[in-house]
């Protein structure tokens, strides 16, 4: 590895490391091609940022007022206002968690308002997820008899909206409806039950501004409180609302990877997180009018490909092929074969537009929160949804018309395509195993040793997608079933690990389980907000086993942490008693072992700081029964996960 960071006890890759280790040949091919062509990507900008700031890397820079910025270290243990080191680290952490909460919250808000518009007949959208509407209504104790599905959906949407924005101390109703009793009691004892997503954002910013709390432990409590708001108001809010609108996904076979793009077809990429407008755009693309328009433009057909979480929504529901994730978005456009990219909200990096401009790719933005200079803007507004059909048709027309302007001399499409079985909603997983009892039995008898949910973003701090794929290969070899979402799932989909054929790479127990059911050892459950599907599975399996969640053989793994949204995912699972294994040190100083002066040469002080000790030692563990393990080397990370699962099984008396 090219860049050594002794302060983190870790290294970061250089260009050669990325090209050598990135597992998808298509990514390597495009990274090399774009470099040769002089097209700038994240890899160039990442190298230009080296060496990175040691204060920022460890969360030691305080920028929460205009007295500073203050950089803290062993010599300067307080900022100008007197704020101490641990308070600065925790304030930075909890602020990034609520930034992620805000992002998922805005996503949930759009989908919930769309349900209201659909229920009131303002938007031409059928409520395809009747099963989910009734299920959530029943859990909330709402009256369903004698009411239309639209009336019930409207009332459920009102509850979801209130959970997002309530300011009074009424517990989040979705939390009360879905969280296990044992956990609710734990959170009540800890005093970390949240009010709503919006309230916890306000309270976090309030607590951490100049002259706010100087007790870092109160920020660890706020971290848990905000994570629970993040989980039950924004993740559940987005995931359940999307299922109410568009239905619960079911397993299906699809083809993914860069090779789905075709030279002689119109190629349209959809990108972002909220699937509302793209559902309509997809509907329009499939109409005879738009298909005919493509033929007239000289195309043999239309390919729609997905990126990031919007891509995963369409993949799960309709088998629409996906191409790549956040760090692949520039590469996908670098094929020179994309006529239009339609983006909604989040994880759309500005670098994408730079590459789009190099290849003449048309960019269409559809969300007022995510504007890009030079893009065509056709926004969806759920409070004024009447124009949705017309706008979606406009986008479809523009996307197809762009085919005529493509510069064919610049096309470079890798040939790789990969088969995958997708659509693993909570219900699909449970049904596949013949109910919770069936899956629990496989866990008890050890054919499946444990379940790891391996999720999250990419980061340039590890070789692109290398940690995701290496860890998961090792886990399935050890009979650990994997669920996945987000950018990680794109890496695993493209690596073939979500195909039933990947059963051959699994250990004997998992292999038998997969082969007898015709399923893959890695289940792609959807976009990041659909981590709720795995969480519900963990909750219900623990309940079925009659065991508290922290005792179950489950692990949360984030091999390539990147976005602020990822912080809340990890803390959500921690709050439920599920330990985290993280693939690169987060913004907390890493305790570094040092020889003890005057002692024997093999005697080391293991090093410590209060915040790292809290998360990785006993502080958090004593509160919720889980801790964070950080391991940047993926084979060692897999070993840690296996060790955690083995320990849990031994304690449960499962062989
Ligand atoms: O929500 S995994 S980079 S795409 S934040 Fe973004 Fe991270 Fe990718 Fe979807 Ni999730």
UniProtKB/TrEMBL annotation:
The gene is cooS1. Its EC number is 1.2.7.4. InterPro entries: CO_DH_a-bundle, CODH, HCP/CODH, Prismane-like_a/b-sand, Prismane-like_sf. Pfam families: Prismane. The keyword DNA repair does not apply. [Ni-4Fe-4S] cluster binds at residues 273, 309, 347, 457, 487, 528. Keywords: 4Fe-4S, Iron, Iron-sulfur, Metal-binding, Nickel, Oxidoreductase. It comes from Neomoorella thermoacetica. Its cofactor is [4Fe-4S] cluster. It comes from the Bacteria. Gene3D superfamilies: 1.20.1270.30, 3.40.50.2030. It is an enzyme of class 1 (oxidoreductase). [4Fe-4S] cluster 2 binds at residues 62, 65, 70, 81. This is Carbon monoxide dehydrogenase. GO terms for molecular function: 4 iron, 4 sulfur cluster binding; anaerobic carbon-monoxide dehydrogenase activity; hydroxylamine reductase activity; nickel cation binding; peroxidase activity. [4Fe-4S] cluster 1 binds at residues 53, 61. It catalyses: CO + 2 oxidized [2Fe-2S]-[ferredoxin] + H2O = 2 reduced [2Fe-2S]-[ferredoxin] + CO2 + 2 H(+). One of its GO terms (biological process) is generation of precursor metabolites and energy.
């Amino acid at each position: 590895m090219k860049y050594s960071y002794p302060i983190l006890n870790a290294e970061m890759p250089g260009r050669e490391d990325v090209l050598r280790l990135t597992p998808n040949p298509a990514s390597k091919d495009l990274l090399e091609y774009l470099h040769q062509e002089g097209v700038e990507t994240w890899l160039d900008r990442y190298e230009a940022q080296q060496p990175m700031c040691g204060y920022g890397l460890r969360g030691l820079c305080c920028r929460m007022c205009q007295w500073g910025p203050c950089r803290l270290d062993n010599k300067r243990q307080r900022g100008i206002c007197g704020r101490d080191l641990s308070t600065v680290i925790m304030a930075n952490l909890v602020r990034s968690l609520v930034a992620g909460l805000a992002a998922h919250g805005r996503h949930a808000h759009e989908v919930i308002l769309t349900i209201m518009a659909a229920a009131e007949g303002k938007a031409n959208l059928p409520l395809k997820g009747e099963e989910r509407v009734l299920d959530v209504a029943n859990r909330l104790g709402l009256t369903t008899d004698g009411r239309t599905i639209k009336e019930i959906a409207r009332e459920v949407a009102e509850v979801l909206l209130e959970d997002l924005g309530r300011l009074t101390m009424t517990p989040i109703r979705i939390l009360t409806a879905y969280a296990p009793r044992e956990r609710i009691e734990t959170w009540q004892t800890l005093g970390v039950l949240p009010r709503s997503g919006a309230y916890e954002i306000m309270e976090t910013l309030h607590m951490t501004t100049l002259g706010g709390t100087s007790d870092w432990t109160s920020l660890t409590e706020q971290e848990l409180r905000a994570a629970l708001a993040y989980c039950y108001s924004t993740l559940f809010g987005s995931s359940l609302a999307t299922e109410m609108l568009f239905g619960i996904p079911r397993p299906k076979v699809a083809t993914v990877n860069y090779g789905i793009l075709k030279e002689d077809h119109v190629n349209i990429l959809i990108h972002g997180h909220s699937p509302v407008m793209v559902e309509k755009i997809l509907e329009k693309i499939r109409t005879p009018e738009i298909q005919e328009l493509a033929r007239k433009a000289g195309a043999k057909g239309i390919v729609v490909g997905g990126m990031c979480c919007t891509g995963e929504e369409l993949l799960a529901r309709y088998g629409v092929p996906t191409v790549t994730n956040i760090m692949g978005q520039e590469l996908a456009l670098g094929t020179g074969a994309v006529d239009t990219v339609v983006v909604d909200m989040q994880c759309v990096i500005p670098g994408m537009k730079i590459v789009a401009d190099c290849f003449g790719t048309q960019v269409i933005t559809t969300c007022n929160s995510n504007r890009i200079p030079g893009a065509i803007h056709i926004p969806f507004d759920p409070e004024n949804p009447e124009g949705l059909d017309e706008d979606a048709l406009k986008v479809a027309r523009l996307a197809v018309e762009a085919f005529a302007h493509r510069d064919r001399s610049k096309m470079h499409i890798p040939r790789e395509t990969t088969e995958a079985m997708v659509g693993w909603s909570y219900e699909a997983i449970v049904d596949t195993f013949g109910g919770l009892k069936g899956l629990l039995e496989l866990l008890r008898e050890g054919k499946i040793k444990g379940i790891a949910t391996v999720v999250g973003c990419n980061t340039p701090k590890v070789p692109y997608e290398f940690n995701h794929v290496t860890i998961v290969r090792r886990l399935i070899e050890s009979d650990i079933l994997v669920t996945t979402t987000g950018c990680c799932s794109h890496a695993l989909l493209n690596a073939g690990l979500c195909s039933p054929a990947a059963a051959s790479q699994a250990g004997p127990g998992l292999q038998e389980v997969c082969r007898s059911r015709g399923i893959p050892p890695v289940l792609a459950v959807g976009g990041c907000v659909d981590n709720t599907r795995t969480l519900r599975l963990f909750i219900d399996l623990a309940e079925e086993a009659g065991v508290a969640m922290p005792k179950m053989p489950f692990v949360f793994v984030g091999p390539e942490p990147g976005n602020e949204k990822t912080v809340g995912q990890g803390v959500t699972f921690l709050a439920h008693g599920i330990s985290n294994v993280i693939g690169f040190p987060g913004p907390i100083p890493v305790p570094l072992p040092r020889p003890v002066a005057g002692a024997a040469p093999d005697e080391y002080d293991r090093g410590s700081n209060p915040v790292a000790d809290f998360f990785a030692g006993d502080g958090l563990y004593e509160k919720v029964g889980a801790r964070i393990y950080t391991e940047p080397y993926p084979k060692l990370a897999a070993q840690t996960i296996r060790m955690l699962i083995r320990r849990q099984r031994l304690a449960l008396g499962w062989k």
